[in-house]
Design goal:
- By secondary structure, this protein is of the alpha/beta class.
- It has 2 domains: 165 residues, P-loop containing nucleotide triphosphate hydrolases (Rossmann fold); 84 residues, Conserved Hypothetical Protein Ylqf, Chain: A, domain 2.
- The protein contains 11 helices and 6 strands.
- α8 packs across α11 and α10 packs across α11.
- The chain starts with 6 loop residues before the first helix and ends in a 31-residue tail after the last helix.
- The C terminus is likely disordered.
- Bound molecules: guanosine-5'-triphosphate (GTP).
- Guanosine-5'-triphosphate binds next to α6.
- One of its GO terms (molecular function) is GTPase activity.
């Protein structure tokens, strides 16, 4: 599978970040709670050196809450405050301002000592394309949605957004490139729609997603596509079985795999299958079913 990103944009984006960083007090990296590793920028640590960093696990409404809790604990252990948000409904975003003030309490104290108590805190909001940066900022600021669409890589100009609570946020639309260091990471980005569907073969993607779901969430898969699915089957057979269960057939009675592939990806991305996380924090060892549909369970 060949997943391409936009290497040409990286140099310009890096330059923009370096020019802008001196103006900000902290960096808020937005991640997709379903894939906190794959949706992270590989260079953010070195690019934002010396800046306090806050992590937002966005799309928490679509992720498995138990796994999101593991990720939150993992980031905290590594020194980063964490928020879990659903920027579509706004759930969790009200914890942002207090978390920033807490992260920057030493700076706030210094401002007060210098008689600059009203000086706003400036936060750069960064993340890979389509991770929900605009939606997050819109929710926090009450800004009218300028753009919130499900098309990765749609770029707008960067802009400061004043937030009523003494914070200014810098929207950096789509400038951070995603990690593409392994096929597994590329697939997770593709499953969640973080990279464009046009550059991928949808059926292959759906086969691979079926295999992941069969490993991680067999019960959710069975609940949606019927007990007729044979666990452990190769992805193309799982997709074939699901298409038959759904009655997606072409003339001659063969399963319509293309249609089923689109439906599977749409249903996964839209949360119709249930709340699903595709990655767990590194310490948690080998991969196991996360919905109790296999052995051992999440707590093992
Ligand atoms: N379910 C759910 N959907 C979300 C959430 N946050 C954003 N979305 C949706 O994800 C899509 C992309 O959101 P945007 O806010 O445009 O993402 P962005 O990071 O600003 O995108 P770029 O400009 O491409 O960098 C939109 O369809 C949003 O409605 C969330 O927390 N939960």
């Amino acid at each position: 599978m060949n997943i391409q990103w936009y290497p040409g944009h990286m140099t310009a984006a890096r330059r923009m970040l370096q020019e802008t960083l001196p103006q900000v007090d902290a960096v808020c990296e937005i991640l997709d709670a379903r894939i906190p590793y794959a949706s992270g920028n590989p260079d953010i640590r070195s690019l934002t050196e010396n800046k306090p960093r806050l992590v937002v696990l966005n799309r928490a409404d679509l992720a498995d809450p138990a796994v999101t809790a593991l990720w939150a604990a993992w980031f905290k252990k590594n020194g980063h405050p964490v928020l879990e948000t659903d920027s579509k409904s706004g759930a969790g975003v009200n914890r942002f301002a207090p978390a920033v003030r807490d992260l920057l309490r030493d700076k706030l104290r210094r401002y007060e000592q210098r008689g600059q108590a009203g000086r706003p805190l400036r936060i750069m909001v960064a993340g890979i394309p389509n991770v929900g940066k605009s939606s997050f900022i819109n929710r926090i600021s009450g800004r009218k949605p300028a753009k919130a669409e499900d098309r990765p890589g749609v770029t707008r100009g960067r802009q400061w957004v004043v937030v009523a609570s003494g914070l200014e946020l810098l929207d950096t639309p789509g400038i951070l490139w995603p990690r593409l260091d392994s096929e597994a990471v590329g697939l997770n980005l593709a499953f969640t729609g973080a990279v464009k569907d046009e550059i991928l073969d949808l059926e292959t993607l759906a086969f691979r997603l079926m295999e992941r779901l069969d490993t991680l969430y067999p019960r959710l898969l069975a609940a949606r596509y019927g007990e007729g699915l044979v666990p452990g089957s190769p992805g193309h057979l799982l997709l074939d079985q699901a298409a038959r269960r759904r009655g997606f057939l072409v003339s001659g009675g063969e399963p319509d795999l293309e249609r089923m592939a689109k439906v599977l990806l749409d249903e996964f991305r839209g949360g119709v299958l249930g709340r699903i996380s595709l990655e767990r924090p590194p310490e948690n060892g080998k991969e196991v079913a996360m919905d109790g549909g296999g052995e051992p369970s999440l707590d093992d």
